[in-house]
Description:
Elements: E1 9-14, H1 17-26, E2 35-40, H2 42-51, E3 56-59, H3 68-78, E4 83-88, H4 93-98, E5 105-108, H5 113-128, H6 133-140, E6 146-147, H7 149-160, H8 166-173, H9 177-188, H10 201-208, H11 210-218, E7 224-225, H12 230-257, H13 261-270, H14 273-281, H15 283-296, H16 300-308, H17 312-322, H18 327-335, H19 349-365, H20 368-371, H21 391-405, H22 407-418
Helix pairs in contact: 2-3, 5-17, 7-8, 8-10, 9-10, 12-13, 12-19, 12-21, 13-18, 13-19, 14-15, 14-17, 15-16, 17-18, 18-19, 19-21, 21-22
Amino acid sequence: MTPDVDKPRLLFVDDEPDVLGALRQSLRRERRRWDIDFAQGGPAALERLAAAPFDVVVTDMRMPEMDGAELLSRVKRDHPGAVRLVLSGQADERHALRSISSAHLWLSKPCPHHELVDALERAIASTRCLRSKALSKLIGGVSSLPSPPTQYAALMRALDDPDPSAQSVAAVLEEDPAMSAKILQLTSSAFFSTPRAISTVHEAVALLGFQTVSQLVLTCGVFEQLESGPQSAAAAEERRVHSVLVARIARRIGEHVGVKASECFTAGMLHDIGELLLASRLDRLFHKAVEKAHADAVPRSEIERAMFGATHAELGAHLIARWGLPLSIVDAVLQHDSDGALELPARTPLGAVVRAADALADEALGVGELDFAHAPLRTDEPGIDGLGDLEPLRAIAREEAAPVGGPRAAAKESTHASA
């Protein structure tokens, strides 16, 4: 029977026929909207994948011949566009750690029907919203993003400290977008996580504990250090510093307007994760986009849409959605930028805070009109009117930007203070 190309295609893999039968029965109503197939074991799954593409692959972990970690590693290599999920109730920490680089999300057996369907819906959405199959494969093949050498070194120092603590490690992780995203991905998986959503790095590290974090870094290599030359390292550090500034401004704006400050910080830290993705995986094209935005004097997102088929905001949101991060953070990353062409849904309060923090950070440093990274903030944008008077928010941005921007930002703050 020829697959319906309009239906998302899902493949479930388990070595036990009874488990596959139970899944088939549980998901029978979903067949009206999904094309669902089942494979008994890893080799059979690879045969199905070789015959036709799948949007989502869901596998048990402990299987004979080929376990789930090996299967997902093969799927990642040969079919990177597929979202890779583990559904397992018989895995120890060793198996979980082996799957970290290849599994997007871990679900525990027995998994309530609504939780399984919710996870599948999110997985499908993350593959279907991007028009470009090439971009979907790019995102699917990413298991981590690089951090600047200075930040990676800071993490190593924190781990090597004679009197180490989870708090000191979290303080390093939360000031790097790549590390923040990865640690939050790990705690979104049922193997590590609690029933409540984890939306801050400090919560994530407290949940995992120092020893687990140390093992993830030193043994499993879950974080990636930028290996390029000094120019790339400087650019990466500049992006990181911008993310830290936006996160700090967002936290204070959240406190000012009554939006959860810790979540504002996380969303602010991750807002440009799509830019980091482009810079690390499509470096030359990304730099061409930056140069063209300068030359044409237009927001960079307009050029990104023309060159890549999506903006960095959309790419970043799709990446962290695939990694299972909280939807509130995903929405804020998607909504932080507005290029006039993107028809935004009603912006969430968190999205409005991050959008304002991003734009006001550039404004405070006096760089927005120079680098054309983002469209200027408008009071008639969706959600921005809910933040109230922008002048107190501008003052917050100037205060936070003064140490970052040096004399220029400090002078701007001094001028406003004396006015």
